[in-house]
Write a structure and sequence with these properties.
The complex is a heterodimer of chains A (about 150) and B (about 160). Chain A has about 150 residues and is α/β, with parallel strands linked by helices. Chain A contains five helices and four strands; from the N terminus they run βααββαβαα. Chain A has one domain (about 1-70, about 75-145). In chain A, a hairpin with a 5-residue loop joins strand 2 (about 50-55) and strand 3 (about 60-65). Chain B has one domain. Classes of the chains: A alpha/beta (about 150), B alpha/beta (about 160).
């Protein structure tokens, strides 16, 4: 089984959520901890379809993040379930769309600035997610998963 | 093999290209408006159908032909689907994605918007058929490019 976290650029909320899922982050976190996460703010080609292998969770399930632009709900809700009807899969994959967490303004800046001023943008994004993510994990994401406890 | 023709709404250009591939539309002349209207799914799908993969038929090589509306995802549709297929262990080689959007002209956009989005079949349908006829041989060219690929001859 593979878990794929989707967001607009595949390297912000999705990476933090994957880290929560893997148990790397727990409870309240600081922006410094978020900045040290692999692929956080990577923004490779800055285009949808960019796939990052995040690592594994405690049960050996592989975690990935995927950039999907603004199509997260469309892919998660319709496109992929439809494709599954035609596809003979060997492995089950579960998609988590986290596009709703990323703020519009930061997404816009990330897209417009691309790799320029990436350091500052990463910092702002990490600060925002450090404030928001613990609450979001508690309120919204508990239904999706139970974070692994050490 | 599964061939998926994709466009914005899955109502006009993908249906036309798929029909040309299946031999439902003539290759030697311009199709008449009635011939378009007799096609399955032509000017039929609406917003809630976006993303639904519709079966159009089997081609003469035995391949399954489908159409889908992918909104304005462009080439990212194929890229994202192939990424997910790779992760799920599915056989990517079985799928061919054909993006018909590059051959969609302004008439088709206007007609499609009037007919499908605003529900104005008159004059939307006439405009979209006019536009489809204008790009008809471009769609035919696209389909012929596909037929030249090796995978059909090996089937």
């Amino acid at each position: 089984m593979k878990l794929i976290f989707l967001d607009q650029l595949g390297c912000y909320a999705s990476v933090v959520a994957a880290a929560y899922y893997a148990g790397i982050l727990q409870g309240k976190v600081t922006y410094q901890e978020i900045l040290t996460l692999p692929y956080f703010g990577a923004q490779g080609s800055n285009q949808p379809g960019e796939l990052y292998e995040f690592g594994e969770d405690g049960k050996g399930r592989k975690l990935y993040t995927l950039s999907v632009g603004n199509y997260g709900p469309f892919i998660n809700g319709v496109l992929w379930p439809e494709m599954l009807k035609l596809l003979q899969t060997k492995e089950q994959i579960v998609l988590y769309d986290l596009s709703f967490i990323n703020p519009f303004l930061l997404n816009l800046l990330g897209t417009i600035l691309r790799r320029r001023l990436r350091g500052i943008l990463k910092l702002v994004w990490a600060y925002y997610l450090a404030k928001k993510m613990p609450l979001l994990v508690k309120v919204y994401l508990q239904e999706m998963w139970t974070p692994r406890k050490n | 093999m599964k061939i998926i023709f994709n466009c914005f709404g899955g109502a006009h250009s993908s249906v036309t290209a798929a029909a040309l591939h299946l031999g439902l539309l003539p290759e030697t002349r311009l199709a008449e408006p009635e011939e378009f209207l007799n096609l399955p799914y032509f000017d039929a799908q609406v917003g809630r159908d976006h993303g639904r993969i519709r079966f159009m038929g089997f081609d003469r090589w035995g391949n399954e032909v489908y159409i889908v509306g992918k909104k304005n995802m462009g080439f990212y549709y194929e890229k994202i689907m192939r990424s997910l297929m790779a992760l799920s262990g599915g056989t990517q080689e079985e799928f061919i994605f054909v993006n018909t959007m590059p051959y969609v002209n302004l008439w088709m956009v206007i007609g499609g918007y009037l007919s499908r989005r605003l529900g104005m079949r008159m004059p939307g349908r006439q405009i979209v058929i006019y536009g489809t006829r204008k790009s008809y041989f471009k769609f035919l060219h696209l389909v012929n490019l596909l037929k030249e690929k090796d995978f059909f001859t090996s089937c």
